[in-house]
Design goal:
267 residues; Fructose-1,6-Bisphosphatase, Chain A, domain 1; 2 domains; 7-stranded mixed sheet; 14 strands
Amino acid sequence: MNGTDLSAYLAFAHRLADAARAAIAPHFRNRVAADNKHKSGGFDPVTDGDRAAEAAMRALIAEVYPDHCVYGEEEGGALSDKVPTWVLDPIDGTRAFISGLPVWGTLIGLDLGVGPVVGIMDQGFTGERYFAADDGAFLNYRGRTDRLQTRSTVSLRQANLATTSPDLFTIPAEAAAFAEIRSRAQATRYGTDCYGYAMLASGYVDLVIESGLKAYDVQALIPIVTQAGGVMTTWSGHSPRHGGQIIAAATPELHAQALEILAIAAL
């Protein structure tokens, strides 16, 4: 695939983000009701905003790229190794969304069979749009487009660590490994969802560690992190394409330090 192809796909991904932003806008901070998708006593919320945004994006894909696959959090699907797959999470961070906190985002990734080559994280309420293809990672905000660059942090002692929740680490070995890294890190922040990865690409967070993620949680974020200079893998050091146990780091050196600790709990 040449740069022209990716440029066209990225332009289309921006159209998808625009459609999702319009569909979500009437619902945020409007005291929307949330249904629980979890069937065994947990809480996995979904709102009309989630559904409307994914439906809007799917309709646009069907119109422009009817031969492409779609894999979305709300309507399902699967990654294809043979044709392009648009990987959609209409509202990543629905718990933050229903709490009125603007640390959620719309995730749009394009996987060509071996991993994502285009990624967008759109925060429609603040107007921030993080995006990447093959020529770098960028933030469009208030009429400006700036290139993103991760920090040069190489030591855990100097690292700002982020994760959505310590509850992600349900296996004792996972919890112990995360606790060890947390004890060494300079600072730890919770409740970040996709925003943590955007802040890593922007040079504010140095390390994001999570577990139990799906492909639609990470596909859009992989190009943004890596094109900004970061490293993103599973805890075993493999491709994060399918989700699972995920680590994103600002530098290869920091990634290696954290991975040495996480490897004991890698699945």
